[in-house]
Amino acid sequence: MFPDLRALLAPAVVERLTLLINHVLASEEPASRRLLAHQGRVLRFDLVDWPRLLPAPPALAFRVTPAGLVEWCPEVEACDLRLRLVAANPAGLVLGVLGGSMPALDIEGNAEFATDVDWLAKNLRWDLAADLERLFGPAVAHEIERVGSMFAKGLRSAVESATALAGRMRAR
Question: What backbone phi and psi angles, to 5 degrees, belong to 106?
Fold first, then answer.
C-alpha cells in the first residue's frame, strides 16, 4: 500500500514544489536572469542519511529552462551540479529552511552554476505576506501571517524538543 501511495503522492508534491520555486524565481527578475546563463544545466539534490522509517524521497533533479526557471527531471542521472545535504532530521531541515537558515551542503560540479545557485539561496525569499495580501487583502493577510508564524514557532519548538529527546535516548 505505501509504495503505491508514495508513487502517487511524491510526483505531485515535487511538481507543486517546482511551481513554488518558479513562482519565487519569477518574482525576482535578477534570479531568473542569473539562471538564463545556465539553460539546460541540471541541479540535483541528494538527501544523505534519510531516516529508514520514512519513504524514500523522489529524485530531486531540476533542469534550467530557457525562461530562467526550473523543471523537475525525475529520470535524470547525470547532473552539472550536485548538492548533498544531511537529512537525518527532515522536519528540522524543512523548518530551518523555512525559518531562513541554510543547511550545510556538500557541493560538487560546475563552479559558475554553483556560484549562481549559492546567490539564489542567499538572496531569494518567498514573500508569502505579499501573496496572501493579493489573495485576501491586507487585514486578512496580516492575521493569517500572524497565526501562521505562531504555528511555525510552536512546530519548530516541538521538533527541537523531539530531536533533543531522541538524542538523549540514543546516548543511553
Answer: -105, 120
Cell of 6: 508514495
**36 backbone dihedrals φ, ψ, rounded to 5°:** -55, -35
The Cα 130–Cα 56 span in angstroms is 34
The domain over range 2-90+102-125 is classified in CATH as 2.60.120: no
Cell numbers representing residue 145 in the block: 501571517
pTM over 0.85: no
CA contacts within 13 A on the Cβ side of 155: 14
79: number of Cβ within 10 Å: 21
CB-CB contact of 42 with 79 (8 Å)? yes
d(CA 89, CA 71): 26
pLDDT higher than 80, residue 133: no
d(CA 139, CA 133): 8
* Strand bridging mode 60-64 / 70-72: antiparallel
Question: Picking from 7-11, 61-65, 72-76, 128-132, which range would have the lowest pLDDT averaged per residue?
Answer: 128-132
| Domain residue ranges of the chain, discontinuous segments joined by + | 2-90+102-125, 129-171
| pLDDT band at residue 126 using 50, 70 and 90 as cut-offs | low
29-36 and 111-123 are packed helices; what angle lies between their axes, rounded to 10 degrees? 170
